[in-house]
Amino acid sequence: MNIHYLKHVPFEGLGSMENILVCSGHRLSNTCLYENQPLPPASGIDALIVMGGPMSVNEEARYPWLVPEKEFLESVLQQEIPVLGVCLGAQLLAEVLGASVTKNPHQEIGWFPVRIMPGFQDERIQNLPESFDALHWHGDTFSIPSGASNFVVSEGCTNQAFVYGENVLGLQFHLEMLPSHVQAIYRECGKPGLTGPYIQGVDEMLAPVDKFRHAHKILEEFLRAFIFQKLTM
Q1: Quick check: is 26 catalytic?
Q2: How far, in Å, CA of 103 to CA of 111, rounded?
Q3: Which pTM was predicted?
Q4: Is-catalytic flag, 157?
Q5: What is the pLDDT at residue 121?
């Protein structure tokens, strides 16, 4: 199966997702939007992954490729192609589905726990732990689109993940990042002196090696439940 992914900046790619996807036998292709590469026809892909980036979904004047990207996402959603959005990718999906994207009360940068909302029932998440540590790097947040369900929360951000129908998953947090990606993003986006209750320094983010391993396992479960299962139907 051909899984296509969208990159908004050179330093935010698939991360550990790439190994999971390749080892599962899927072909990968991508569009680097920052290079103004053309988007493929939606009918030519089996699943889509929309990655993160430091820009806002509202910065169309500064990043004009956001306009055709949003149109492309609309066509993907109309064709019910499985799609996963990560951070900015989730925010873009939320906006295309009619929700708003605004500043979160707190910036989240670092490892912080998220938890499945009590009472949320969906057989696709039955193998996920009730709470787990995730890596965060965002200042914006999305509201939940009409018809979608919010199912993950954190202390610093109420809306951490949503599911829409059978084919759409948006994750505000990162499970795919490796230490090398954290270092690259910190070089590009880190702001020395930035403080807040949910902000860690780069050394603190890199220290818990076991958290990267655990995040990888959680990511595998998300992909198995929301992407791979759809590709085998």
Answers
A1: no
A2: 20
A3: 0.95
A4: no
A5: 85
